[in-house]
């Protein structure tokens, strides 16, 4: 794996803002999320994409203002703790950490399914171990390396899109069950597609000071990244629908791999599989970095054991990285990508509901539109979280109950 460790310091031109955000978002969600979104909403999926985009824009704005006001890792958690109290901050942080672990597991399983489908769980665990070792050694994909990996991801997706539209699709298979087109289905699709946007916080709420950009560069970077992701996700979804149809797409656990077989381009599958697997490695590394920022904030507040903050020779919290990697590997070995993705999205939506609520209080004396955006983001996050599958909601409920109790037990403080 290519390595480039960028020297500390902000890029004056802000050129690194786009790969920092977009490189974290172009991951498993783009490769897999269209399938469960199609199962939830069918042809109404584009409306779900717009709702997910609205929730992301509001959450990105809120976390950017929080990061500006609290210039520390885990700024959203710190803001919620300062503005809403200890228990809400622990609920949001617990959901965030669990969501990041499940998200890492989902990304790793998708990587394993692309690289070696017959041993996907084992490959996923090995990939997570590789990422933990890389992170512990201080590897940070930035600068030219980030652009190279971003171009690789776009090239893989572009090859799939071109192949799907270049070959005449086979006649559609009759639907085994009617596709959902209700309002609940649309919001369910939006909730799943929300996962595809995760990674924006790497720019709006960086875990390291050297990733902090000037406000104008940050805003420009997030706008470009979100627009680019919507375009890419729309193109990939349209290509999958063109070749598979809505019903077959809804039933596909790995639509990008299946569509190549459907398009009589099975010879391209190994190339696309290896390319996609390699492209997902930096996304895993970015998810671990995001996990690290909020977890270290909890360690600083003594809500997590101080042992987790112990650093190695590279200055990285190797114990924390190892715990996160082992937890994600355990989930990857036991859970398929789509259920893991649904649980991750539900947990992170709960986190952003609290983050937007904290931003609403932070911005109460500031600009009107940012405050209203935070209110909208809070409402959308709640609605989307409540639109997830029952299993994901129940698992999230367990997290938001046990998490605050566990952190409170560690610190022995309840307010």
TrEMBL record:
Q: Which Gene3D superfamilies match?
A: Amino acid/polyamine transporter I
Alphabetical UniProt keywords? Membrane, Transmembrane, Transmembrane helix, Transport
> Which residue ranges run through the membrane?
12-32, 44-65, 91-112, 118-139, 146-170, 182-200, 221-242, 262-288, 341-363, 375-406
Question: A GO molecular function for this record?
Answer: amino acid transmembrane transporter activity
**Its domain of life?**
Bacteria
Name this protein carries in UniProt: APC family permease
Q: Which organism is it from?
A: Saccharopolyspora elongata
């Amino acid at each position: 794996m290519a390595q480039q460790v960028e020297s500390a310091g902000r890029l004056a031109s802000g050129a690194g803002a786009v790969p920092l955000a977009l490189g974290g978002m172009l991951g498993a969600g783009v490769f897999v999320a269209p399938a469960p979104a199609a199962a939830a909403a069918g042809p109404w999926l584009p409306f779900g994409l717009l709702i997910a985009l609205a929730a992301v824009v509001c959450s990105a704005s809120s976390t950017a203002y929080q990061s500006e006001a609290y210039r520390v890792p885990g700024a959203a958690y710190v803001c919620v703790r300062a503005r809403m109290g200890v228990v809400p901050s622990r609920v949001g942080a617990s959901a965030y950490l669990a969501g990041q672990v499940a998200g890492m597991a989902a990304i790793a399983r998708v990587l394993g399914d692309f690289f070696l489908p017959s041993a996907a769980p084992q490959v996923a665990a090995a990939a997570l171990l590789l990422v933990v070792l890389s992170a512990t050694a201080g590897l940070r994909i930035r600068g030219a390396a980030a652009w190279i990996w971003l171009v690789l991801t776009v090239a893989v997706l572009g090859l799939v899109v071109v192949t799907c539209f270049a070959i005449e699709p086979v006649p559609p298979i009759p639907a085994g069950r009617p596709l959902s087109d209700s309002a609940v289905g649309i919001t369910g699709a939006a909730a799943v597609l929300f996962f595809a946007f995760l990674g924006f916080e790497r720019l709006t709420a960086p875990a390291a000071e050297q990733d902090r950009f000037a406000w104008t560069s940050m805003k420009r970077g997030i706008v470009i990244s979100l627009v680019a992701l919507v375009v890419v996700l729309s193109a990939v979804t349209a290509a999958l629908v063109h070749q598979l149809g809505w019903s077959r797409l809804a039933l596909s656990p790995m639509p990008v791999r299946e569509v190549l077989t459907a398009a009589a381009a099975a010879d391209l599958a190994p190339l696309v599989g290896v390319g996609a697997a390699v492209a997902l490695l930096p996304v895993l590394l970015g998810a671990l970095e995001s996990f690290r920022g909020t977890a270290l904030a909890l360690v600083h507040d003594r809500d997590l054991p101080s042992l987790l903050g112990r650093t190695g020779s590279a200055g990285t919290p190797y114990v924390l990285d190892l715990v996160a990697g082992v937890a994600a590997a355990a989930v990857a070995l036991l859970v398929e990508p789509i259920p893991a993705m649904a649980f991750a999205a539900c947990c992170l939506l709960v986190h952003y509901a609290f983050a937007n609520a904290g931003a609403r209080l932070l911005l109460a004396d500031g600009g009107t539109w940012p405050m209203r955006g935070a209110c909208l983001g809070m409402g959308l996050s709640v609605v989307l979280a409540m639109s997830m599958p029952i299993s994901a909601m129940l698992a999230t409920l367990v997290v938001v109950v046990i998490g605050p109790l566990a952190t409170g037990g560690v610190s022995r403080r309840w307010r």
